[in-house]
Amino acid sequence: MRPPYYYCGTLLLLILGFSKSYAYQEGKVTGSRFFIFGDSTVDAGNNNYISTTPENQADYPPYGHNGYFEKPTGRFSEGRIVVDFIAEYAQLPLIPPFLQPSAEYVNGVNFASAGAGILPETNQGLVIDLKTQLNHFEQVRQSLIEDLGEAEANTVLSEAVYSFSIGSNDYMGGYLGNPNMQQMHDPEEFVGMVIGNLTQAIQELYAKGGRKFAFLSLSSLGCLPVLRALNPRKEGGCFEEATALAMAHNNAFSSVLANLEHLLKDFSYCNSKFSIWLDDRINNPLNHGFKDGINACCGIGPYGGIFTCGGTKNMTEYKLCESPDDYVWWDSFHPTEKLHEQLAQELWYGSPDVGPYNLQQLFSGNNKKFIIADVVDDPSYEQKY
Ligand SMILES: *[C@@H]1O[C@H](CO)[C@@H](O)[C@H](O)[C@H]1NC(C)=O
Ligand SMILES: *[C@@H]1O[C@H](CO)[C@@H](O)[C@H](O)[C@H]1NC(C)=O
């Protein structure tokens, strides 16, 4: 028994006389579904529905300030975030938050939660941690099996793209901001635990039929406005301890992914050297259409690094810049919509910093390893930049 929306899709296509469609074809979903796991970088509103602190929510102005959405949605940006652009390039509608009432799962689901970490200890009780995000995915999988039958559900699950943007909160609040954790584990051991838990999450999704994975690696955390402002040492410099943890994480995780590709049949993935890409925008903003790579558009204090954007937190005073598009950073922790868009383009079309597959290949099922020459020959790549 198919749910009624399949018939609606078919009917609409017949009326419009479409011969080819990305989403519906003869009543079947033919596009890859998009499942999103992560933290505030990709939360599209799940935290609107949990009880947490204002630091973990963005459903108040000036979030959503650029008017793309009618009102603040819970996205930590003045507009859209990277997964919104990726969905657009994949010709999918916006992917709804899992907790949004009456959300439809037909094109995928966003499980992400601002403040979440890979470890359950990170911001415990205030966020939907990764394990719980996976439990939510399991509910969606069960309902897919009920709706489509096991065989077709398995096809859908193997064609879907599973994306992860998570880990920063483990190193910031979970470790550097948590003396107890530092006493229990040295940095190397802590990174090992985080990577171990992330690897388990991937293996669990693989065991449930997931084959295509996308990862946003960690940025140079120490260069977030909030950590520049906290840096006890260099005036205006990046907080190197934070960046070092993120880089150790990225290095360890790259090796894990290379191993999984050997060990797991048909496992394919897109990873990115996000920190190198972002550092270039922080250090040379003018080369990428920005005017300021260091200061937050919304916040107060040095670098806008005191996280008061919106005035809902302990301190109610905040400043808002005139043109967010001039800035890499929207608030003390999060980038602007323009940065999100450039990142989505990078992941979609690929570059030497993205691989072994780009997102276009994962979504289209064209699992030919990414070759740099493809990009150079693709005129839309130049255009998009
Ligand atoms: C996962 O994290 C927990 C701490 O929450 C840790 O005890 C455990 O060893 C980690 N698992 C792996 C496989 O690293
Ligand atoms: C905000 O204030 C509350 C209550 O005074 C306090 O418990 C909390 O730690 C403060 N949060 C921050 C981020 O300063």
Automatic annotation (TrEMBL):
GO MF term list: lipase activity
UniProt keyword terms in alphabetical order: Signal
Stored InterPro entries: GDSL, GLIP1-5/GLL25, SGNH_hydro_sf, SGNH_plant_lipase-like
Pfam families for this protein: Lipase_GDSL
Record family assignment: Belongs to the 'GDSL' lipolytic enzyme family.
Protein name in the entry: Uncharacterized protein
